[in-house]
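TA notes, week 10

Several of you asked for a full example with nothing omitted. So below is the full record: structure tokens for the whole chain, then the designed sequence directly under it. When grading your own attempts, check the secondary structure regions first.
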């Protein structure tokens, strides 16, 4: 099957089709049959033996190689690839847990489904990995599988979002963002901003594009912002709706918000990709963004593309969610390897950016 097209290709290179000497062509194929077969086998062998490059998924790496005896085997169950933040977070794992440093990584993409993540954890347990890293999509529903990991003596590090379990000894520790604080920071920033614009006592109509419901990022940001909203009776939350942390869904939800309410002053977007979707819908509706426009947007994540929109004034403030959790996870693994104790909860450092800052310089310096 493979020999024929390959031989035909070689024929074209040899100029057979220009001369159209069919008989000659057949003779040529016969003559080079052995060489073609040898070439095919060689190519097959090459493809079968090659190890994945660093850019390949680690799943491929897993199926094509085996850990060395002294490798530290880490199973990572990632949420999915719903946002720029998530892609950066995943890349940081790949860059941190490398073969050169003695790690063997098994990476599983949950594709935004908890059941896939549970399956991944069970696979890691079966493979008897040394550590499990779980970036959980939602907070609840982990007790059983984490108990299974504990029974198998596999330490579990919860990264990024949190889990809510009856028995906290089911996981070793958590490293990630303080999402509640991020929400509060956004609320406090808005209060100061409105005050500075002489709108501190005016009625303010707000809508919120929430992240994936029941994820710590959504719960924390919604709750934190609501806590500050309670202090401002003139702020009115028109509606909360989930955009599932994606641009496409947020675009649809924002279209609906704009059709339903004609007096929106503020959009709280619980991540940058949803802000991109909202901006698209707002522009299409013919409305102006920014502090001298009709609507202001406050976002979370502060990824580079969003900071460019802060620079343009289309997002007024962006509250950072640091995606580079992998080095902290590695520190934890190394401590555990040395038999040292680790803190139960470790937050990553985070800041915020707004339209008043020199964004050009900040974007230049920024890693993500
Ligand atoms: O859990 C972190 C959140 O998840 C980020 O804000 C968001 O962009 C991601 O999808």
């Amino acid at each position: 099957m493979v020999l024929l097209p390959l031989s035909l290709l070689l024929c074209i290179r040899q100029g057979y089709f220009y001369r159209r000497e069919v008989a000659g062509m057949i003779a040529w194929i016969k003559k080079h049959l052995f060489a073609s077969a040898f070439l095919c086998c060689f190519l097959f062998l090459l493809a079968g033996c090659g190890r994945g490059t660093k850019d390949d998924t680690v799943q491929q790496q897993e199926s094509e190689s085996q850990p060395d005896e002294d490798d530290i085997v880490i199973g990572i169950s990632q949420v999915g690839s719903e946002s720029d933040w998530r892609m950066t977070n995943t890349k940081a794992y790949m860059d941190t847990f490398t073969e050169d440093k003695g790690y063997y990584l098994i990476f599983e993409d949950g594709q935004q489904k908890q059941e896939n993540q549970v399956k991944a954890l069970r696979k890691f347990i079966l493979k008897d990995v040394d550590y499990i890293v779980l970036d959980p999509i939602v907070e609840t529903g982990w007790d059983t599988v984490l108990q299974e990991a504990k029974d198998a003596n596999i330490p579990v590090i919860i990264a990024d979002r949190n889990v809510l379990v009856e028995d906290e000894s089911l996981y070793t520790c958590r490293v990630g963002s303080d999402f509640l604080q991020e929400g509060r920071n956004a609320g406090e920033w808005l209060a100061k901003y409105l005050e500075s614009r002489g709108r501190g006592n005016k009625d303010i109509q707000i809508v919120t594009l929430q992240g994936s419901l029941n994820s710590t990022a959504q719960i924390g940001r919604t709750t934190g912002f609501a806590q500050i909203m309670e202090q401002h009776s003139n702020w009115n939350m028109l509606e909360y709706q989930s955009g599932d942390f994606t641009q496409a869904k947020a675009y649809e939800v924002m279209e609906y918000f704009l059709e339903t309410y004609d007096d929106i002053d503020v959009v709280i977007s619980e991540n940058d990709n949803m802000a991109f979707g909202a901006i698209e819908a707002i522009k299409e509706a013919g409305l102006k963004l920014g502090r001298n426009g009709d609507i202001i947007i406050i976002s979370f994540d502060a990824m580079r593309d969003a900071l460019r929109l802060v620079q343009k004034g289309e997002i007024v403030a962006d509250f950072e969610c640091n995606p580079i959790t992998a080095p902290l996870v590695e520190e934890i693994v190394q401590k555990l390897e040395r038999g040292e104790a680790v803190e139960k909860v470790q937050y990553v450092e985070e800041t915020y950016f707004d339209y008043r800052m020199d964004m050009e310089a900040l974007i230049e310096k920024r890693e993500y």
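The longest helix spans residues 179-196. Use that as a sanity check on your answer.
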